[in-house]
Every structure is written in structure tokens, then in C-alpha cells.
Amino acid sequence: MRTDAARNRARILSAAAAIVAERGVDGLAMADVAAAAGVGVGTLYRRFGDRSGLAYALIDARERAFQQDFLGGPPPLGPGAPPRERVRAFLHALADRTVEQLDLLVMAETAAPFARFGGAYAAHHAHLSMLIAQHSPGSDAPTLADALLAPLQAPLVAHRLRTGAVTPERLKAALDALAAW
């Protein structure tokens, strides 16, 4: 990426993050982000497409750090712990991440019918499938991975948290029960 393009991207993401912190995701307007970043609205649309693309970009740094943690960080999230412990640590960390970035994830995951199943989901699914296969050879690891990831859909988590039907702690306990194969 060109230096000026990288600088513009950083300014845009900083402006968008500040707007989300101040007004919430519902207050994230492309025109406001462009004005705060000192770029044209067209630049914003060319680079991010729409608000959900901007939401994904805001989520990206946290996702990259999360992936680094489960691929190479310390156990039990990272390598070195038994597969079952790693599954539990992974699901708990993913639940925390989902709650922390809930509104951005809801926006990103509901942008299109299959928006949830992009790069991050594929990485999470592949990681869980690998751990499940290590722990239970011969199991249908990909389907079990989908079952473990399903309760972490941002719209579902948002609904359950906001109606008081679940807390982050109860969500993690339920994930533990699901992963007790």
C-alpha cells in the first residue's frame, strides 16, 4: 500500500473508531467519517464499499490479534495444551471478543446473507475442526465445529444479552457443555 493510502486508511479507521466510541455503531455515517478523516466520501466508498465494510475493517485488528493468539500464543489458547483445553480456551476467547465488539459484528454479519461466513469464520472453523479431529479422530469435525460456532453469531448473542436471557458467563458455560463431547 502506498504511504499516502496507508496514512489515509489509518486516519479513516481512527475517525470511524472515535465515532463508534462516541455515538455507537448506529451513528457511523460514511459522510461523518470522511469529514473527520479529511478525505472524500468517494475515497471511503472505494476503499471500504459501505458501512459494513468499514465495520469489518474496524474489527480486523482485533481479529488478527486473536488469530495470532490461537495459532501461536501461549497455551491453552495457543499450541501446547491438549485439544479439549484449547477448544474451551478458544470458545471463551471468541465469546469475549464477540461481546467486546458486538455491535460492529452484528453490522458486519448481517450485511449480506452469507456475510458471517467470510475469512474470520473460515479461520475459526478450520482451527476448531483441527482440534476436534485431534481429540476425536473419526468424528465429523467440520459439522461439530459449526455447532460450536453457531451460538456465537453476533445477532443471536446481542439478542440474548439484551433481553437478559443470558450473560457472558452463562454463554461460556453453555459452550463448555456443548464442547464436552
SSE layout and pairings?
Layout (H helix, E strand, L loop, with lengths): L2 H21 L6 H8 L3 H8 L2 H22 L10 H18 L1 H8 L9 H17 L5 H9 L4 H9 L5 H11 L3
How much strand content do the residues show? under 5%
Question: Order of SSEs, N→C?
Answer: HHHHHHHHHH
Number of strands: 0
Largest beta sheet, briefly? none
Instruction: Output the CATH topology of the largest domain.
Output: Tetracycline Repressor, domain 2
Total helices: the number is: 10
Radius of gyration: 18 Å
Q: For the record, what CATH class of the largest domain applies?
A: Mainly Alpha
Folded structure, characterized:
There is one protein chain. The protein is mainly α. The chain folds into 2 domains: 1-49, Arc Repressor Mutant, subunit A (Orthogonal Bundle); 59-178, Tetracycline Repressor, domain 2. Helices cover 72% and strands 0% of the residues. The chain contains 10 helices and no strands. It has helices at residues 3-23, 30-37, 41-48, 51-72, 83-100, 102-109, 119-135, 141-149, 154-162, 168-178. The radius of gyration is 18 Å and the shape is elongated. The mean pLDDT is 92.
